[in-house]
Structures are given as C-alpha cells and as structure tokens.
Amino acid sequence: MAMSTIPILSPVTTGYRDAFAAIRAMPILAVAAFLIMLSINLSEHILPTRAIESIVAGVILSLAVSAAQNFFLTPVMIAVHRYIILDDVTAKYVLEPGQKTFRAFFAWLMALSALGLFVFVFGAPKNEQALASLGIVMVGLVVLVVASTRLSILFPAIAVDAPGASAVNAWADSTGHTLRIFLIFLLAALPILIVALIAIVPFVLSEANQNDAPPGLFAMLAISAAQMFFLVLCVAIASRLYQALADRLLGAPALPPQ
Q: For the chain, what are the domain ranges?
C-alpha cells in the first residue's frame, strides 16, 4: 500500500546512505559512471557547441552528446535501482541495448532530455522578444520539473520489471506528491552544491583567469566525481520514492471512481 504522505528529510538522509552503500557494493560501476561523466565533460569542452551559430546543428550535437551520456549511464542507473530495491549486486559494467528493460529506460531518459533541450532552445532570447522568451523558459521549466518529478518513480519500476511500469501509472501514483518530491531532490542537491562552490568553483575560476592545465584537470575530475555521486544519489532517492508510492506501478488495479 502506497504512503498517503511522504516525509521530506528522511528520504534525503536515506538517499545519501544508500548512495554510499551502492558505491561500496558496486565500485566497478561507480568507476564506470565517473569515467563516462569525465568523457562527456571532456567532449563538451573540446566540441565547439557554443560556437555553433546554427540552431539546428547545435540541437543535433547537444542531443547526440545527451544520447551518448544516457546510453552509457543506463546500465549504471538500472543496477543501482536493482541494488536498492532488490538487493541485487551487479558485479561488472555490461551494455545490453537489446534488452527490453534497457530500451525502455533509455527511451524515457531521452524523452526527458529532449524536453529539457526543447525548453532552453526555443526559449532562448531573441533580441526584442527577450521578455517573451523568458516567459517561455519559465513555463517550460515548470513543465520540465513537474514531468521529471512525476515520472521519477517510473525509472525504478522499469529497472525492476514492475508489472505496471508505465508513465500513466507513475503519473497516477505520484499524484499529490509533486511538491514534496521536488523538495526532496532539491534538498539532496544542496550539500553537493555547497561543496562544489567551496571546493571546485575556485579552481574553475583559476583556470579561466590563468588558463593553467593542472587546475583545469583537477576541476574536471572533481566535477565528474560530483556528477557521478549526484547521479547515484538521485537514483537512490527515486528507488525509495518508488517503494513508498508505487501502487499501480506494482500492478494494483485502479481504484473505482468515487
């Protein structure tokens, strides 16, 4: 039976504990996720995405980078979901794009990535229409946040092959919890943001001012490590939210209309 009200603080503390436990239990996957993040960051640094004037070319390149990241991170995210929900330890990193679970998980990751890209591309300021563009971005961000929070419990459902794993059921099971889910993820991100501002940003600014290789390398490694941990943390929290809220996702029949 799904919880009628979910707390805000305890899922965050549990998520941090679960994230550290998952990394300890599956170090190879953690290293793989770190290397994937590092490779993506290096590619974005090398590829002239910001220098591309054509919107179409920029969108295609951004989608390609996002697709590569989602594709290679999908096995890691599925493994973490299964570890937390099923206590299933994945010993090594394996790509299985032909697997039904992989395809569904990756497809929904790309759907949310495409939505986010759509918001920022079509809401980009266009000279005299800057105010209207800002309005489009704000509305788009609200849609993106709502969609991401409402569908966050869909991913663990797909990962564990839940009988009712569908967007409709995830949307139904998360009804009435949107704000709390958003606040949980926001609160979980704050410690990482604070650490990043204290420990990483100074090196990034140093690189911008002096263009020294060592600070740039350290910043890239630190950012990739932080991104890897935040990814595992978000997956861990989504897994616990799934356990707390899943009803129709578990295959339970829909309640009759009142």
A: 9-250
Please tell me the distance from the alpha carbon of residue 82 to that of residue 183, in angstroms, as a whole number: 24
DSSP labels for 45-81?
Answer: HHS-GGG---HHHHHHHHHHHHHHHHHHHHHHHHHHH
Per-residue pLDDT band for 22 (boundaries 50, 70, 90) equals very high
Contact call for residues 27 and 33 (beta carbons, < 8 A): no
On the question of pLDDT at 124 being above 80, the answer is no
Q: What are 201's two structure tokens?
A: 């940003």
Task: Give residues with Cβ within 8 angstroms of 252, minimum separation 6.
Answer: 164
Kindly report the average pLDDT of the chain as a whole number: 84
| Position 120 pLDDT exceeds 90 | no
93-118 burial, b for 16+ CB within 10 Å, e for fewer? beeeeeeebbebbbebbbebbeebbe
pTM of the predicted structure, to 2 decimals: 0.87
